[in-house]
Amino acid sequence: xxxxxxxxxxxxxxxxxxxxxxxxxxxxxxxxxxxxxxxxxxxxxxxxxxxxxxxxxxxxxxxxxxxxxxxxxxxxxxxxxxxxxxxxxxxxxxxxxxxxxxxxxxxxxxxxxxxxxxxxxxxxxxxxxxxxxxxxxxxxxxxxxxxxxxxxxxxxxxxxxxxxxxxxxxxxxxxxxxxxxxxxxxx
Length: 187
Hints:
Helix 1 runs parallel beside helix 2 (75-117). The chain is an alpha+beta fold. It is 36% helix and 29% strand. Strand 2 and strand 3 form a beta hairpin. Strands 1-2-3-4 form a four-stranded mixed beta sheet, with helices on one face. The protein folds into two domains: 2-93, Ribosome hibernation promotion factor-like (Double Stranded RNA Binding Domain, 2-Layer Sandwich); 143-183, SHC Adaptor Protein, CATH 3.30.505.50.
């Protein structure tokens, strides 16, 4: 998970960075598919209470954004408040995902039983393909930017339109810790 930390009205020290990385990184065990976390830390003043710290954490999950903020007179307490709120949201997010999977399985089994009720037999063709994706290659990339994008997504390969050749290419990680490119020539 990529963690971006920004501060406003105070200097960001290494101790604060390591605290945030430890706390936000620990949230990755709730959901492994979180792509990025953005942490905005801010120091403000209120006329009757003095300095107040605000921590806002946004986590980008597939098709969802989780956001929480905490305010306290201590920066570490504000971060902890936001983390606690995010834990609750992550648990709800995971439970919602599990519920959708169960509901889909129930609907699929119910749909399979309908033809049998009316005396028809229906056999679903067996296939090893479990998921199908459609890619839209919007802008051409250099080979180096394709490697960076593949590593950012933590994939072992990446399909892109090569900027230098104009062809559809696949870049992949080799076992010898290098990279390989497959170019498609007949498209």
